[in-house]
Design a protein that fits this description.
Oligomer: single chain
Number of strands: 21
Number of helices: 10
Helix content: 10-25%
CATH architecture of the largest domain: 3-Layer(aba) Sandwich
Strand order of the largest sheet: 17-16-15-18-19-21-20
Strand content: 25-35%
CATH topology of the largest domain: Rossmann fold
Bound molecules: S-adenosylmethionine
CATH class of the largest domain: Alpha Beta
Number of domains: 3
Structural class: alpha/beta
CATH superfamily of the largest domain: Vaccinia Virus protein VP39
Radius of gyration: 23 Å
Shape: globular
Distance between the termini: 49 Å
């Protein structure tokens, strides 16, 4: 088998990266935009020692799970890999992704519950990060997601998974940037001004925080000068949209794929939007981690709170805390909570949330989880672990076990690292009691899972 070869195949299964899986002479082929039970003609795009990748060139017999694509750009834009599959079946596929990882990587046979659907499957995504560039000859600003596996921008005018106001703001920026002497960033030459548009919305208030990531070094005196074009543009965006609570500038002049630079300055309005989860209001800034689908996140927070409530006035550690969302949500049913988060600005936002919600039993630490745990003598009844996609280190799992008396609630956005970490915890004598997937990222292959682990 070689690049460019064509075959007709039946799609047998679905991979944990959102592609169909077919077999040709025993060799695994990952097929983009294909669904189990499809019969398709494919073209091989690359071949490695253990598997090949392919794309669909013709649908010969469509799977019964196919539906109208969520958006005309579904096959081009890399975001909604499952956007052509019936939503109920998407939930089933996500369940299977978790089950597969738990069994194959984790070697754990605890039953995986059915995926809890997202309350909204369109306009649900309250965070958007569009890379920006410009066309070669006419220098028109373009903004959108990267085409799958490339750094080629798909100039997106409409995205059904985001609030429609996001499309309007991006269109305004595309049309107006030149008036303010602002060009689009060109990755190849590392030249041009505007690198990314980052938008954070609120399901609760309908308000929006806009951040323009610019290819400049932060310079306070330049920024406050009355003629600074970026600040003037920010003010213009702020004044044009009633929904916009503030516009920030983020400074990133490094040659990097990391979107945000270290320095963010709010130059119009305020530097946050407010989101409400259960009965608590949270302030979310440009660089604070907050779940992208607040409605579905609320289901997870309720689930975790219900679990914590089973204990009588427990002490809780909220590790990898972000703006201490879990800690704050469970504070009503806990004796005390300690929230630990390495990002200082998230902890600053969390302090404000505690104050505004009159919460007095949550302590905050802007620290690495392991460093914090190594520095203390006390133990907690329950630890909530919500690490980034790479999961926990063995050291952080060991420290968690050293400091937790009864239960770990592991919240994961990556089934593979979750399964690896569960395997380790089980090898240390823990018992996996329940596994509950949630759909937070409809139409993508991503799945969030909450696991209850008894110590
Ligand atoms: C998946 S987010 C969870 C945030 C939060 N629990 C929530 O639901 O909004 C992971 C968080 O862990 C933080 N983080 C990453 N490594 C860390 C570490 N070693 N110690 C503490 N926090 C860390 C990140 O900054 C991020 O806010």
């Amino acid at each position: 088998m070689k690049k460019g070869d064509e075959f007709i195949v039946n799609i047998e299964r679905f991979s944990n990266l959102g592609t169909g899986i077919a077999k040709i002479d025993g060799q695994i082929v990952f097929v983009e935009n294909a669904c189990p039970e499809d019969k398709v003609k494919i073209r091989i795009s690359s071949v490695t020692k253990n598997y090949a990748n392919a794309s669909v060139t013709e649908i010969i017999e469509p799977s019964r799970y196919r539906t109208n694509p969520i958006c005309p750009l579904q096959r081009i834009c890399g975001s909604c890999q499952l956007g052509f599959i019936d939503y109920d079946y998407q939930l089933k596929l996500k369940h299977n992704i978790v089950e597969d990882s738990i069994l194959k990587i984790g070697n754990i046979d605890t039953k995986v519950q059915d995926t809890i659907p997202s309350p909204k499957i369109k306009n649900y995504r309250q965070k958007m990060q569009y890379p920006v560039s410009e066309t070669k000859n006419s220098k028109r600003i373009i903004a959108g997601y990267f085409k799958q596996k490339t750094h080629e921008i798909v100039n997106i005018k409409y995205c059904p998974i985001q609030p429609t106001i996001c499309d309007e703001i991006v269109e305004f920026i595309r049309g107006k940037a030149h008036e303010f002497g602002i060009s689009g960033y060109v990755e190849k030459t590392h030249k041009g001004d505007l690198r990314h548009i980052v938008i954070r919305g609120s399901e609760y208030s309908g308000k929006i925080l806009v951040t323009l990531v610019i290819n400049k070094q932060y310079c306070y005196s330049e920024l406050v000068s009355k003629s600074n074009n970026f600040a003037l543009f920010a003010q213009n965006i702020y004044e044009h949209f009633d929904e916009v609570t503030g516009v920030c500038l983020n400074f990133n002049n490094k040659k990097t794929n990391v979107i945000l630079g270290e320095k963010t300055e709010c130059v119009a309005g305020v530097d946050f939007v407010e989101e409400k989860i259960i009965n608590k209001v949270f302030k979310i800034g440009a660089d604070t981690f907050f779940q992208v689908n607040p409605k579905s996140a609320e289901n997870i927070f309720k689930y975790v709170k219900k679990e914590v409530k089973k204990f009588e006035s427990p002490t809780v550690l909220d590790a990898y805390a972000g703006i201490a969302t879990f800690g704050i949500v469970v504070s009503d049913v806990a004796k005390s909570v300690v929230s630990v988060e390495s990002n200082k600005s998230s902890i600053e936002k969390a302090k404000e949330v505690l104050k505004e919600n009159n919460i007095e039993n949550v302590e905050l630490f802007a620290q690495d989880t392991v460093k914090y745990l190594k520095s203390i003598k006390k133990n907690f009844d329950i630890t909530i672990l919500d690490p980034p996609r790479k999961g926990c280190t063995q050291e952080s799992l060991d420290e968690t076990l050293n400091h937790t008396k009864k239960e770990i609630i592991y919240v994961s956005c990556n089934p593979a690292t979750l399964a690896r970490d569960l395997k380790y915890l089980v090898s240390k004598g823990c018992k996996v009691e329940s596994i509950q997937p949630f759909d937070m990222f409809c139409h993508t292959y991503h799945v969030e899972t909450v696991v209850i682990i008894k110590i």
